Amino acid sequence: YNEYKSYLRMVGGIRYDPLPLGIRCLKRCSGSKPPNNNIYKGWILILTFLIYMTYHMNRKCPSVVKKTLHGNTSNDNDTGWYPFNKEDGNKLLGYLDTALLLSYAIAIFFWGHVADGVSLRYFLTAGMLATSVSGILYGMAQFWNIHELAYFVIMMMVVGTFQATGWPAVVAVVGNWVSKGSRGLVMGVWNSHTSVGNILGNIIAGTESNSVDTWGLSFVYPAIIMALLAVVVFFFLPTTPQSVNLPPPNQTSKDEDEERLIRSIQVGNESDDDDGEDVDPNSIPAIGFGKALMLPGVLEFSFSLFFAKLVCYTFLFCLPQYIAAIEIGGKQYKSDKASDVSSFYDIGGIIGSIVCGILADKTGCNAIVCIIFQIASVPLLLLYYIYGGTSMAAQIGVMCVLGFFSNGPYALITTAVSADLGTQEAIRGSAQALATVSAIIDGIGSVGATIGPYLTSSLIGDGDASHSSYKYVFTMLMAASFVSALCLVRLFIKDVRQIRARRIVARDVLSRTPTPSYKQLRDIQ
Questions:
Q1: What's the whole-model pTM score?
Q2: What is the distance between the alpha carbons of residues 374 and 304, in angstroms, rounded to a whole number?
Q3: How far, in Å, CA of 309 to CA of 325, rounded?
């Protein structure tokens, strides 16, 4: 163990993090054959998947109980929970969404910078426990018979603040273990944790959401699950390959290597003199907030995520309420059934995240993939508003396709794009930049997530919501999807030019040398 501590201090720049007790025990039990890199990588992906799944499971709870808290002002048997059962109840519930998301958007910038300088394992454990405690305290308002709006707003701000601890840390951990060339597919599958968390939130929180006598348990159950997982994180999460004496992953993609080789052959270079000496990415100190903000592509993808997240979080917080407010095939559904139906949006989102990641890996053009998905979601939003209520089949079918196209770019930007930008050549792959860049992109996006539910509650107006009440809401969502695509136009043009240049260079190389394959190009180099 002393040798291990000396190793950490020798490489420098790696945040001091003793090997987790559980991993130490497993290594000791495995004897002379310790787990290899693939086993560790698989475990990291599974554990971080579960971590952020529980974050989203807890984040889904407020939207599940909205209809129960508001009640039905025209039905004396559906009293709701004061003060949300008044005429302006929808607006007050919108204030709670704003409190949660605004505190999240502000806190994530702070937590991202903090995560760059401390042990990610300790950081995640503390953040998960704090999120669990704050969620339980919010749900206890039902058992303690609290009806003060100030309590709900303050507790929602506390929940949002601690919810922000999750994303920068898990992206940094995964970025430390996954090579750049496979991030699109791996993180596309991995990012389905958001949709799985939403689905589980609908199911677990929905079991107690129909009654004003039990709605508090909708917050307590998910919080307890998260607290139990925090214990697993503390004992079994190695945050870097180096902490278990494994080499770091390759931080350049095959396309980037191939382009570098082709350029060097084209100009007649026989060596990589321009690259200089190899630098251990973990020995580079964390970069500042201003420098991270000015990295190529960070601002464009941040503002694109601003509008993409506005759309996704409006559905996250308001979709169950919308389904419960409208008639589907001439029938109206209660909160628990509406929550179950809204899960199909997340099912479509899971598939969209995976497909978007595969396309990004195959093309190497993140901006092109995002714009195609974002433009396609505009007419789908209109179709969902017009035809979603005609039947349950139409509701589920259009909702799945809409989730596919609207969640794909959101998932790609927050995962693979954030990790790529945080390990790009401009900062020579500093692993310590990952959390900061991820926090900037997700933080700016979270401002959009704050605005979406707030504008929705304002556009719906007072009283009981109906299908016509959401006309301007869907207009807002269509405009947001279109603007999200516009933010990436410069990078879209850059990607198109890069594809054309790559073909020209490759054709020129192939005309001068009989070495068409990537392996042969590497041999020449």
A1: 0.70
A2: 10
A3: 23
